[in-house]
Write a structure and sequence with these properties.
disordered N terminus, TIM Barrel, Rossmann fold, disordered C terminus
């Protein structure tokens, strides 16, 4: 190392950076230098020895998982051959960054660090970093801005990891279904689509300071040989090559691609010499790419270890021929010592002009300068994994897969799938024995019957499946790829085809393909097919949501699979306003902040024994962004809470059942809420309830008593009361038919007594607000009288069943496993047992579990979906349930009331009273609290839904710590805090929510 270069190195080391610098746009044309650039390049070039200059043309292999011997070899090549760059492969991000910093510190000039990152860092660091969709799936996307966004995010991650070069995009036009190495790595078969998306990918990288590299020049798409294993031969004419294979490269050269990778292909039309790879061909690299196309950037060879070159050339000869052909950087040389020796010999023999060699070195130096490698950068190791795998990046991945979903055809118009009024939805999983992300998400859209089989089901297995399927059923079949890295082939056996044909003849069939779209050729006979491109779990989730209409389907096939699945095939659907799932950032929510605050509050509540467990859900703009279970069913910690658990909703019943039914009857003109109760309930004639206006009852302004302890009148007298044998039996017999618990049955005449006590009760609060359960007993009777259906039957028929909300039910043990239902109390005052699966409220229990004020059970998801329907002005799943004006009427405060709507609780506006929800909630927010420790709040101003379910009454309902801790309110507040300031909320980017209705 000479004295001048030592001074350069010292200057570099003096300005080491430990953080990622702001990035400038990478300027691709290396033929034009600014005076500052020329001065730096000249200074560094003249300071270097011959070997240091030559070393800049080498980029060597580097792993972070091959141990000390491999690291020592890389160190040796950096120190002895002054290599200009490293290309990282498998390992871990932490170890890669550690080694990158180590190698940079050793190098006399900062190294150019590269990766194959076609689908992000996950291509080389799978399961540790994000894998975005492969290019074939991206080829289906119609919004090319998403491609730019993805490349921008990949650039950010690469900078964070100390990487400067991405060997992407792939510009190969893949028009050969048998291509063993490109396949899913191509944008598809259409040159224009490949070009447009390749441009956006390139621009996203280079606008953010990462050198993009278009590959594999002059086009690897129409081959059936893997150049890693042999030398593929492309026999097309020059005219064909120019019109198809070369088209994207020609365009991106024009629009500023920074580098191009020369492939190992034999192309007789361009170079007739036998066994001459294009990467070693002067007519292809220099004459065509450099001169005819006018490319002024860097030219990389493809990996020089590949059999496409090593099969016909010796180590050292490969590298020398590549330099002679016109390449600038030798990627993954097999033998550096032999390469140095042979290249020097070629120079001495005149095969490589010294001026050409100098030109290449200067190009590499200029590129390094433009990448910021005129000075070393050492990114910090702290928080690396979390800063690579950000919530925003995960959100972008979801957006990409949602945009890629392609409904190839839908002859029977089955998509979006509607919850069937008759029949059932059956999921048949083929080729994935374990429960999948697809089938798990399907469960959020109804009660699904799940079946599974292998890729070659036996005749017996086929028959068993067919026996589980009925004519009215919708059968959603999922076919999974073999998991191969580039091909992702979906095996569609004759046995599978026979089974699918039999199902199709019997039921409504929807086929979803999680793999290569070329697999569609085997499925031409089926009328409804969704192409999802890969078995990636995010794609599976997106497919399930798309099928049920939570998201739009807009993708188009990027390749032709068959006549029935041609290029550009794809039907567009609209979102049908079903509850969807998304990463928080996609709807303007800070997911990390939200989760951390709710986690802290949940742990506090469980630690303080305010409740043994809970489920919390937050949704915005129709998307669930947070849903998590905490704790256990009881303090014995024997069963953990699941998000699928079904809780006693207590007084949430008033709005989630009774009020909804009243609203529906108002919609239909069957109830006028300004009429008195006696108009509909003649049995009230002569009582003080006869003239109570329905509107006032709904708003708790009718003067009714708060409640009546009906159960006490059925207990034995004395110090230790218990259920009287006059009213109860331990087994069902005669008139003792009302189940209060598993082993306690009440005489049905007691129900009449309950009603009589309500009719006879005083009105102690006339003209005043007084929260009352009694009014909602009467509302349930009103529903029954007007509709001919009990409140549970009416709500199920008009809301729960058509919406696919299987968990919303009264008396849940009739349809739901007991294990899904947390107990609500160890009752030692009435039922003398642990109450589980029966309504906790004593009065509702005496009504057979069905009442207007309590009795409804449900999961967090189903409660949220029900209230999302209200937020969407009465529509859900493509069906209208309520009129917008009815929702507005019921969610508007009662005249001169500062809190109550009609049935619905609203934000407390009286400053002298305690808040019932988050202070940041708007005045339009509505919902209800429940005695067992439940809450649901909806805020139209923020399109926000919040659900909190718990069994805080276990083991004793006197436990009031949940209220003392304000857990429900604080968690609700956390949702607003995660939205940021008011100005941030109004300007936050909210994707995929166009058309969501709001309560006016």
């Amino acid at each position: 190392m000479n004295e001048h270069f030592s001074r350069v190195l010292l200057a570099v080391m003096a300005v080491l950076s430990v953080t990622v610098r702001a990035q400038q746009v990478y300027e691709a044309d290396l033929s034009q230098l600014t005076p500052t650039e020329r001065k730096w390049v000249d200074s560094v070039y003249t300071s270097m020895s011959e070997d240091q200059r030559l070393g800049q043309l080498f980029m060597i292999r580097a792993h972070s998982d091959l141990g000390p011997d491999h690291v020592a070899e890389v160190v040796s090549q950096i120190e002895n051959y002054h290599v200009g760059g490293v290309c990282f492969f498998q390992g871990t991000p932490e170890k890669q960054l550690e080694l990158t910093n180590q190698y940079q510190a050793l190098s006399h000039l900062p190294l150019m660090v590269s990766m194959d990152a076609e689908w992000g860092l996950g291509m080389r660091l799978p399961d540790q970093t994000i894998s975005f969709p492969k290019q074939l799936a991206l080829g289906a996307i119609r919004n090319n801005q998403l491609i730019y966004d993805m490349a921008t995010e990949i650039a950010r991650q690469m900078h964070r990891l100390g990487v400067n070069v991405s060997f992407s995009p792939v510009l190969d036009v893949n028009n050969n279904p048998e291509n063993p190495v490109i396949a899913t790595r191509s944008f598809g078969e259409d040159r224009y689509n490949v070009t447009a998306k390749g441009y956006m990918y390139m621009k996203g990288l280079q606008d953010n300071g990462i050198l993009a590299s278009a590959k594999h020049f002059p086009g690897h798409g129409d081959t059936d040989v893997d150049s890693h294993l042999d030398l593929p031969v492309i026999k097309h004419s020059l005219a064909r090559l120019d019109s198809i294979e070369l088209y994207p490269f020609r365009a991106l050269v024009r629009y500023g691609i920074g580098s191009i990778m020369a492939a190992h292909l034999q192309i007789p039309a361009l170079d007739p010499r036998p066994n001459r790879p294009s990467s070693l061909s002067k007519p292809i690299v220099s004459d065509l790419l450099r001169d005819e196309l006018g490319f002024n950037g860097l030219i990389f060879t493809d990996g020089l270890e590949m059999k496409g070159v090593t099969k016909h050339y010796q180590p050292g000869e490969v590298e020398a021929e590549a330099i002679a052909a016109g390449s600038d950087i030798l990627l993954l040389p097999e033998d550096i010592a032999a390469s140095f020796e042979t290249i020097k010999r070629y120079v001495a023999e005149g095969k490589i002009p010294p001026a050409k060699l100098e030109e290449k070195v200067r190009r590499v130096l200029l590129s390094k300068y433009r990448l910021g490698l005129n000075r070393a950068s050492f990114p910090a190791a702290e928080n690396l994994r979390s800063e690579l795998n950000t919530a925003a990046a995960k959100s972008l991945k979801q957006d990409l897969y949602e945009a890629a979903m392609t409904l190839v055809r839908d002859k029977e118009k089955l998509v979006p799938i509607a919850t069937p009024e008759t029949g059932k939805i059956v999921s048949l999983r083929i080729g994935s024995p374990q429960s999948s992300a697809f089938t798990t998400r399907l469960d959020d859209y109804g009660q699904i019957t799940h079946l599974t089989t292998g890729v070659k089901p036996t005749a017996t297995e086929q028959q068993q499946i067919l026996q589980r399927v009925d004519g009215e059923d919708v059968v959603v079949v999922s076919l999974y790829s073999d998991g191969s890295r580039f091909i992702e082939k979906v095996p569609v056996s004759d046995e599978v085809l026979r089974l699918l044909k039999a199902i199709d003849q019997k039921s409504k069939l929807v086929v979803t393909v999680f793999g290569n779209p070329y697999s569609l050729a085997a499925l031409d006979g089926f009328g409804t097919v969704l192409e999802a491109y890969t078995r990636d779990e995010v794609a599976q989730d997106a497919a399930a949501q798309a099928l049920f209409g939570a998201t739009r389907i807009t993708g188009r096939l990027p390749v032709t699979a068959s006549k029935a699945a041609p290029y550009n095939a794809g039907l567009e659907t609209t979102a049908n306003f079903r509850m969807g799932y998304a990463n928080p950032e996609s709807v303007g929510v800070n997911g990390e902040q939200l989760a951390s605050k709710i986690d802290v509050l949940a742990r506090e509540a469980i630690r303080e024994k305010a409740t043994p467990g809970m489920v919390v859900l937050v949704a915005r703009s129709g998307k669930v962004v947070f849903e998590k279970a905490y704790g256990h069913h009881t303090y014995a910690r024997e069963q953990a809470v699941s998000t699928n658990d079904v809780y006693d909703l207590a007084s949430v019943t008033k709005v989630a059942a009774t009020t909804l039914c009243i609203m529906k009857l108002v919609d239909e003109g069957r109830i006028d809420i300004d009429k008195p109760l006696g108009f509909y309930l003649p049995e009230l004639e002569g009582t003080n309830k006869e003239n109570l206006k329905i509107r006032a009852v709904l708003a708790h302004r009718a003067g009714l008593s708060a409640w009546i302890p009906f159960y006490k009148y059925t207990l034995t007298p004395g110090r230790y009361p218990k259920p009287s044998s006059q009213f109860y039996r331990t087994a069902q017999t005669g008139n003792f038919v009302v189940p209060v618990t598993d082993n306690l049955f009440m005489n049905k005449v007691c129900i009449d007594s309950v009603w009589q006590r309500i009719y006879d009760s005083p009105l102690p609060n006339v003209g005043k607000y007084r929260y009352s359960d009694l009014g909602f007993y009467l509302m349930a009777k009103l529903i029954d009288r007007v509709s001919g259906l009990t409140v549970n039957e009416y709500a199920a028929r008009h809301f729960y069943r058509p919406m696919g909300l299987e968990s919303l039910t009264f008396n849940p043990l009739r349809s739901i496993d007991r294990d899904r239902i947390p107990p609500t109390e160890v009752d030692d005052y009435f039922r003398m047992c642990t109450v589980q699966g029966y309504v906790h409220d004593m009065g509702a229990g005496m009504m057979g579990g069905v009442s207007g004020h309590a009795g409804l059970f449900g999961s967090a998801h189903d409660v949220a979906a029900l209230f999302q329907m209200l937020l969407q002005e009465g529509t859900y799943g493509g069906k209208r349930y309520l009129k917008p004006e009815t929702i507005q009427q019921f969610t508007t405060r009662y005249a001169d009331d500062l809190r109550r709507g009609l049935g619905f609780d609203m934000k407390q506006l009286d400053e002298d009273r305690s808040l019932n929800m988050a202070e940041d909630a708007s005045a339009r927010a509505f919902g209800h609290l429940g005695f067992t420790g439940t809450a649901v709040w909806v805020d139209p101003a923020e399109e926000l839904v919040y659900v909190f379910l718990s069994n805080r009454t276990y083991p004793n309902m006197e436990n009031n710590k949940l209220n003392q801790l304000d857990t429900r309110i604080k968690m609700h507040a956390a949702a607003y805090q995660a939205l940021g300031s008011t100005s941030e909320r109004s300007t936050s980017a909210v994707r995929n929510t166009a058309g969501l209705g709001q309560v006016p």
